[in-house]
Design a protein that fits this description.
This protein is an alpha+beta fold and 141 residues long. Helices cover 21% and strands 44% of the residues. β6 and β7 form a beta hairpin.
Length: 141
């Protein structure tokens, strides 16, 4: 019985701080519940595929594949082994060039899709911001 009450309480909390969709249909991931909102998208991917998502984070250039650079926009949260990245890989088109420098603080808007078997955000806009948000976010309730 306690387990059911705990699950119901969690559902109510997540619904109250859930992912916000504005009138324009864009899902905006905020700073306060960043980790929860990204995890909800990862756990319920089918509900979000094809949707437009916007958030701020650290633009990183990484090399995961032999074909060249990959791009991610992340924040960090504390995990079992220290700071863990949370965010999405970003597909960038040439019309967004020049790309921000590595470690720049950006606002990214894109459409969530599966690309070559991986979950990616196909960027519609990528804007470098002057004011940085919090790079380290809590798994806060």
């Amino acid at each position: 019985m306690k387990k059911i009450a705990w699950i119901l309480a969690l559902v109510v909390i997540l619904a109250g701080c859930g992912i916000r969709t504005d009138d324009d249909g864009i899902i905006r991931i905020g700073e306060r519940f960043f980790v929860q909102q990204v995890f909800d998208i990862l756990l319920n991917t089918q509900d979000y595929l094809g949707r437009t998502i916007q958030y701020e984070g650290i633009f990183r250039i990484v090399q995961w594949r032999a074909e060249g650079d990959d791009h991610i926009v992340i924040r960090y949260t504390m995990g079992c082994c220290g700071e863990e990245p949370v965010g999405f890989f970003i597909l960038l088109s040439d019309n967004l060039y020049p790309f921000p420098s590595d470690q720049a603080w950006v606002n990214v808007t894109g459409v969530l899709e599966i690309y070559e078997g991986s979950l990616m955000l196909r960027a519609i806009s990528l804007v470098e911001m002057e004011e940085r948000g919090s790079a380290l976010v809590d798994f806060a309730w």
